[in-house]
From TrEMBL:
Inosine/uridine-preferring nucleoside hydrolase domain residues: 41-318
Keywords recorded for this protein, A-Z: Hydrolase
Family of this protein: Belongs to the IUNH family.
Record's protein name: Inosine-uridine preferring nucleoside hydrolase family protein
Gene Ontology molecular function: hydrolase activity, hydrolyzing N-glycosyl compounds
InterPro entries cross-referenced by the UniProt entry: Inosine/uridine_hydrolase_dom, Ribo_hydro-like
Amino acid sequence: MAGEQIDDAEMYWVRLDGGAGRLTEPRLCDEWRRLILSGLLQAITISTNGWTNAGHAVNQIYDLLYMMGRDDIAVGIGGEGGILNDGTILPSVGGYLPIVDQGYGTTGYCRYSQVIPLGLRGKLDIDTIYGFRKQFLPQANRQYLPLQQPTTQQILMDKISAGSIIVFCGGTPTNLALFLMSNPHLKKNIQHIYLMGGGLGPRQVNCPTISTSSCPTGNVYTGDNTAPNAEYNFFSDPFAAYQVIHSGIPITLIPLDATDTIPITTEFMQEFEKQQHTLEAQYCFNALKMICDTWYTTPHFSQIFFMWDSFLAGVATSIMLKQNNTNGENEFAEMEYKTITVITSNEPYGTSDGSNPLFDGLKKPRFNLMRKGIHSGHIVTGPGDPFCIAQNGCKDGDTQVVTGPEGVRVRLAVRAKPNPDKHSKLNKAFYKNFLDVINRPHQTGRFNYTTQFPHYREATNVPDFKGRKLGKTVVFDMDMSPGDFLALIYLLKVPTEVIYLKAILVTPTGWATAATIDIVYDILHIMKRDDILVGLGDLYASNQTYANFNLIGSCKYRRAIPHGAGGFLDSDTLYGFAHDMPRSPRRFAS
């Protein structure tokens, strides 16, 4: 595959999930491995309007690329631009928020992202790769640095304006939609978009004890009936998904219907455990095993976890390797064409109930939208939205088959093809291909953290206080803002005969996200105070979690904190400085 020509286009992979952290799961391990091997991967952009936080995500990408020897690949994230009330999209808009809530800057409402947990089974696990990331990945030469980090829109402009290109979109399509809306004249340069998202048919996993025909089509779980048919990628920004689907660019869609047919099975995990011949295979397997061990019980894992984005990569690559392949023939999935659309608001259209920022309170709707058009109805305000509950579920982000001019004809995967080898324990063709690709010996990872630094030892630095009179015992409660880290270092420098810092309480409801706890551990390690206990506090402010599903909650207060410069991005990276610190043997573990 590495030496084969794929049409006449250069490859450009756009990573638009919040899941930069999910690069360790099979859904993405194979994706970046395939594209790196092909030599056609030009750039990566990261969306933080999903399952990951910007500072943790971008440094993880840099470390992964460094491990794979591909520091030539451009990486873009965020931006400080915004959208004006008249719909003008400013340069370098950050994409931290769904388009409907994007204002001037990087603060805003978490309307859709409330359905993603901030802690376990959510962003904390993804940002740290369940505690495995800093244990394994090497320390890259590149890192996030304020005022120097390329933005998402800069990277998109540089690569797409250069000529014919192909885009892989593995998650929330906010960044891509913003680019297409701002630069319609460059749509002609995008030869094809391969998109993972949406769901068209009922999912048996949603209701295993009743008839499949009545099952919801989505995978967004809120503990109630807010959005039963929505899929995470499209639900995180329905208006963006609509803009991409209706862009006029040829689309190949990998929906939940198809990925449901290629779950992470016990047999696959057993074979994967035997085949860890490269560093990247080891990294992916260990992270996946931690998900299996901590998120779900083994018998149910294959009912919940699937090869989402990696299936997109496999199908797309197989399609592109065949010249003049208009029907999408490939080794791994059966394909068909359907006319679809993405629902962005709920009927009745043209009503103003305060839920829709594209219309409410504006003399002229944003983006010249029609007052009583399909985007003008009620949109979800969050889990437990009374309008949605009364309607037996809202339709935001739903993917529907339609007829007439409101639909777009797209090519989509239907189901995974079986393995031609009937004697194999792996019953899908893509299972075998995934393991083959991830274990290929050429252009493999160069080193992990311990081989990069052979003298590194996971040993704690604990002081000996025998015979010393300790000062007043202090517990420091911090929210991990840069100012708090200065205070922490000051307290560590005060003689222990004056102040004996015994424990630190980390409160992730302020200016940093929960995964920044690893910086606390690193600073304590540098200062030879690994004896200090560190506790992680609640992920949500008081009374802000949802009763039906307490892993998720509101952003009522934290919405005032910028996602970008001066906010979470800078705090989570200590303005770029944290990446180069020695790594403590203590770290968050899921």
